[in-house]
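user: can you give me the structure for this one chain? tokens are fine.
assistant: on it. calling the predictor now.
[tool input]
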Amino acid sequence: MKEQLFRRQQINVLLIMANRLIREALAKVLAKRGDLVVMGAFSNGAEALNEMLKSSPDVLVADSISFWPREIVSSRWFSAEACGFKALFVGMPDDRQAFLEAIRAGAFGYVLSDASALDVVGAIRSVAGGEAVCPPHFVALLYEQIREQARMVAEDSCETQPLWTRRELQLLPLIGEGLTNKEIASRLNISEQTVKNHIHRMVQKAGVNNRLELLEPVPAPA
């Protein structure tokens, strides 16, 4: 498919690739695109660090994270808010763990090793425009990760979050004495409306029908 030709905003690109032949070839391909400007091409992150800070690239294109110094791989360097660029990994393996490692390192895009030069060009433009890029079959993996994290957060919340607040714990024995809202309000030196609001929230939280059922033991989670 022929590349669509239309006016685009300039995108500054920094290359960090271990293979010199691939690095130089990709730099030439990008240089032919009027909207892509290669600010520098380096063999490792240590060499590129000063250029990253000086030129403020829009997109950082790399073929690996294994040889980068820790200070560059950290989320502090990959943060778009902090440094103004997005990281795109290209020539990557079709591997779930490698993909997740890149995402955790802060990657905004992940392109497989069988991608063409035009695929990389398109990925750079997409990432620069704020679109995340990854193989379609890895999208389901991201959903799995999000669901698993949500499940773990929910479990931790159930284990650590008490059912009743301090004020609600004060209300329970007074409800058990059969006191009215007005009498409870007088005991706790709060308004009657505040008592009503507390009891209403307690009934909703416990999933019961009325205030008396609040006094029944709460069943343990299955």
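assistant: here you go. The longest helix spans residues 139-160. The two ends are 56 Å apart (CA to CA).
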